[in-house]
C-alpha cells in the first residue's frame, strides 16, 4: 500500500516504503493425479523459490493415500531433519527456512517422482513500490479541477495499490490518475503517511 498526499499548495509527496514484510507461507501439496507428486500452489511444479524467513507448508488434504515427507541432504543439509508421515486427511507440516540454500525433499513411499526442492534465495525478495506524483495545477480560482498523477510502479511488476487523499472531507481516490474538483476557496496540504 502506497499512501500519497495530494495538495492544492503542493508539497512533494514521497512514496512511503512498504513495511518489512513478514515471512510468507508457501503451500506445497501432495497430489495423486494419477501420479504421485508434490505441487506448489504458486509454481505448479515441485520447486518453490522463497526468501529467508519464509515458511513452506506441506499439505496432505488433496491426497488420496498416505504420504511421507523426508528431508534429503543431497544439496543443502537441512538444519533439522524432517521425517513425517501423514495418513489421508493428515495435518499439514510447516517448516521455516532461514538460510539460503537448495533443500530437497521426497516422499520415500513413492520415490523420486515425488521429490521436490525448496530454493531459498536472498535477493529474490520483494522490492518496494515507488511513485513520482505530479499535481497540477497547484493554484487557481474555485471551482478548480486538479489532476493528480501518481506515476506509481513496482520494480517486481506487482500490482500497486495507492490512495490519494485530497485533503477535503476524507475524499480519496485509488486511481493512478485522479481528478478532484475543489469548490471552496482555501489551501490544503497533506503530507504522506
Ligand atoms: Cu507419497
Short description:
This protein has 193 residues and is mainly beta. The chain is 0% helix and 40% strand. It has 2 domains: 2-19 and 127-182, no CATH class; 26-120, Cupredoxins -  blue copper proteins (Immunoglobulin-like), CATH 2.60.40.
Q: What's the alpha carbon Rg, rounded to whole Å?
A: 25 Å
Quote the CATH topology of the largest domain.
Answer: Immunoglobulin-like
Q: What structural category arises from helix and sheet content?
A: mainly beta
Spell out which ligands are present: copper (II) ion
Q: What is the number of strand segments? A: 17
Structural overview:
This protein is mostly beta strands and 193 residues long. Helices cover 0% and strands 40% of the residues. The chain has a 5-stranded mixed sheet with strand order 4-10-9-6-7, with no helix packed on it. The protein is elongated. Bound molecules: copper (II) ion (CU). The site of copper (II) ion (CU) has 6 residues, from loops.
Please give the structural blueprint:
Elements lengths: L1 E4 L19 E8 L3 E5 L6 E4 L4 E5 L7 E6 L10 E4 L6 E4 L4 E6 L8 E6 L9 E2 L2 E3 L7 E6 L2 E2 L8 E4 L6 E2 L3 E6 L11
Parallel strand pairs: 1-15, 2-5, 4-10
Antiparallel strand pairs: 2-3, 5-8, 6-7, 6-9, 9-10, 11-14, 12-13, 13-17, 15-16
